[in-house]
Amino acid sequence: MTYCVGLLLENGLVFMSDTRTNSGVDNLSVFQKMFSWTVPGERLITIMTAGNLATTQCLVSLLDERSKTPEDRDPSILKVSSMFQAAKLIGDTLREIILDTSPTGLSGDSSFSANIILGGQIKGGQQRLFLIYPEGNFIEASEDTPFFQSGETKYGRPILVRAFDRNMTFEDAVKLLMVSFDSTLKANLSVGLPLDLQIYERDSLTKGMEKRFESYDPYYLKISEGWSTALKEAQRSLPNFHFEV
Amino acid sequence: MTYCVGLLLENGLVFMSDTRTNSGVDNLSVFQKMFSWTVPGERLITIMTAGNLATTQCLVSLLDERSKTPEDRDPSILKVSSMFQAAKLIGDTLREIILDTSPTGLSGDSSFSANIILGGQIKGGQQRLFLIYPEGNFIEASEDTPFFQSGETKYGRPILVRAFDRNMTFEDAVKLLMVSFDSTLKANLSVGLPLDLQIYERDSLTKGMEKRFESYDPYYLKISEGWSTALKEAQRSLPNFHFEV
Q: Which CATH class is domain A3-233?
């Protein structure tokens, strides 16, 4: 499993993903799930992948190769003229890969399916955030639903629903994501550290701050320990229940 | 879907269940999911059901009829000599019902499966809490895992994992459960109010306090509103993230 979150803020985009892949509980590995393509000053396109690793690695390789080999550069992730076109290219490529693997008649324990969170901005357009389905179609984040999660989404959702605010700072967004990821990490073995973070500053048209939070990261440890205490305190602060006598 | 939680405290048992059943999003109903059998001074046996409604209603009817018709009273939920025997009786009955329905070749959109949380105490034995699987086998709560959830468990799990304490009072346990249920209600339409609560006081060998929390229950509303604020405050109280300069 996987846990990825993309936030659409007034100031920009925030991406966070875990890095654990597992095939059974005795086959755990660390694989990056966040990938970016950028032409500074012109475009930044970031995706986070969730699902079958062979499918998602193939997707990234295809997008990458198509962006590098000039003769095969049409359509290319570095050439598409809008984020909508980028979502369409990625969705079409994803569906192609899944269809290519599926009809062989061979099937693994899990399906070849995958989901993609896509965010970024291309010169002349707005910053946009999409969730792309294995069928190749996609939905876009709006003011009403300004974030997307994929993978193991349930444990970390209550805090996002309650505390997310489109106008929050990047620093607050990182804090919120750390709590949401920590709740998920504590509950589900298939989501694991390290965590990858990337910030995109609106209209900057280039890749922003990146950071990897390892399990010994002091900020992660502070959040992880602090959240237990803060949650118990929040719980304590609520009005007490009294049995009717 | 459903959300049920059974807690094994030092002082006794606490049961809470929602009451929503759904078959699609346009077919919602309120059905009780918590059922008790008691012989005051001798035994209290409570179950909470999650899964196919036809299966769980049949289970309750069978257990009930077997406890009422004298000629068919062996084995009966009011006669079994230990909580282990009660778990075995319920597990066997559950498996029987599912097997009886399944081989007809007809199948609905969902399976005929169900899970049961069972708790109680029979004179001469300890209070015990079990989780019974559709296959008829079961596991028992211990000091290491002193609660069971069933149904839509993920949204409400982080707060249980962090704030549960075997030595907490009944009042604190109810408060904790209200928060856990509220997180689930806010995130998943298939879990719905009203909520049923039952307390069993250790060694009392009779049914304790019962309460139904309707959507307009003042305590529920206080928790639901208060938790948003408390959670945001908890979030705010954590150390801030700072980008390295």
A: alpha beta
